[in-house]
Write a structure and sequence with these properties.
This protein is α+β, with helices and mostly antiparallel strands. The protein folds into 2 domains: 96 residues, Rieske [2Fe-2S] iron-sulphur domain (Rieske Iron-sulfur Protein, 3-layer Sandwich), CATH 2.102.10.10; 199 residues, Naphthalene 1,2-dioxygenase Alpha Subunit, Chain A, domain 1 (Alpha-Beta Complex), CATH 3.90.380. The chain has 7 helices and 18 strands. Strands 11, 12, 13, 14, 15, 16, 17 and 18 form an 8-stranded antiparallel β-sheet that branches. The protein has a 4-stranded antiparallel β-sheet with strand order 5-6-7-8. β17 and β18 form a beta hairpin. α3 crosses α6. It is globular and about 75 Å long. Bound molecules: FE2/S2 (inorganic) cluster and fe (ii) ion. Fe (ii) ion (FE2) binds next to loops.
């Protein structure tokens, strides 16, 4: 039986969620993927963007379609310090100003002014490039370990999921899938019954604290990453989630996952890993490689789910119906996301 009868909840729409997400910072690239002179495309919340970095390091995020004939500027390049459209060579600066229209016999200030790109807020932090589509007071949460030079900080390769971003968040918070979805990595002997969880609500989200028993894998020697540890999972709404693993010997790891919504049914997971100084365990590159394998197993599970996005309102196959103990954290996320949406989110 549902512990959350649908009848008492206001019905929320995907449009409400989309508009709220547009007011939040979302990652669009690993910073290293867009070096000076780099140009790329990214679809964020159904909006196709061009992301470019100029020689001085400044970033541009703008609608991808050239104001002239709509060619994708993501196929352009930086030429003489300006973003150049591949079709007729119009050029733009980091502010989106159109500086040059080669076909004009004489410069025409009016035409240049009308040709300004539609730009968005863009910034770099934690090794990611972030874009906010609509101005708001939303800020990025502080994760000191990511900016502490004593810690080893590694960027994971972004992974595309043919699944909605809330499917990915739920997966990240799911406590009973390890023995099944991760039998090849984390171990078949993982206990699908959840350990004692302590959930704490915060103004901007929630966290879970739990002891994690050692996992046994039949495929490889149980290593540090599968050994007993304390786990704190923190979700900063809507989709910035971290896991802090504290091992008995004092070593720690902090992982961040942000499933950046491409469309209503797809997302790209940006993630990174901070490792405490002198970590006694597998070398950092091996930890990333292991995490990629685990994440790919999660991707496969998310892509199996119907519908591709978790319905906002309680439903069978979604959330709030057939709730089991291992779903507690995912249910907490859905309830808190509703609270965040109905409270006006980041307006
Ligand atoms: S379409 Fe971009 S310059 Fe013509
Ligand atoms: Fe998983």
């Amino acid at each position: 039986m549902s512990d959350f009868p649908p009848t008492v909840l206001p019905l929320l729409t995907e449009e409400t969620a989309l508009n709220a997400l547009r007011r939040t910072w979302q990652p669009v690239a690993n910073a290293a993927a867009v070096p000076p002179g780099g140009v790329m495309g990214y679809t964020l919340l159904n909006t196709e963007l061009v992301i470019a970095r100029f020689a001085d390091g400044s970033l541009l995020a703008a609608d991808v379609a050239c104001p002239h004939k709509g060619a994708r500027l993501s196929a352009g390049c930086i030429r003489d310090g300006q973003l150049m459209c591949p079709y007729h060579g119009w050029r733009f600066n980091a502010e989106g100003d159109c500086l040059s229209i080669p076909s004009l016999l004489e410069p025409n200030a009016d035409k240049l002014a009308l040709s300004h790109l539609r730009t968005y807020e863009v910034r770099q932090r934690y090794g990611f490039i972030w874009v906010k589509l609509v101005a708001s007071r939303h800020g990025l949460p502080a994760v000191p370990e990511f900016e502490d030079e004593r810690w080893t900080y590694l960027m994971g390769p972004p992974m595309k999921f043919a699944a909605g971003w809330r499917r990915e968040v739920e997966n990240y918070l799911d406590m009973s899938h390890f023995a099944f979805a991760h039998s090849a990595t984390l171990g078949q002997a993982a206990d699908p019954r959840i350990p004692d969880m302590k959930i704490t609500l915060h103004e901007d989200g929630f966290q879970m604290d739990a002891p994690f028993p050692a996992l046994q894998s039949t495929h490889e020697m149980p290593g540090k990453l599968q050994s007993t540890h304390h786990r704190r999972q923190r979700c900063h709404l809507p989709n910035f989630t971290t896991i802090r693993q504290s091992f008995p010997d004092g070593d720690e790891r902090v992982l961040v996952h942000v499933p950046s919504p491409n469309t209503g049914e797809s997302c790209t997971v940006f993630w990174s890993l901070a490792i405490s100084p002198g970590f006694r365990g597998p070398p950092p590159e091996q930890q990333i490689e292991f995490a990629v394998r685990v994440l790919d197993e999660d991707r496969q599970m998310c892509e199996l789910q119907i519908p591709r996005e978790v319905p906002l309102n309680p439903s069978r196959g979604g959330w709030g119906v057939l709730v089991m103990p291992g779903d507690t954290l995912a249910t907490t996320f859905q309830k808190q996301f509703r609270r965040w949406l109905t409270a006006g989110a980041t307006v």
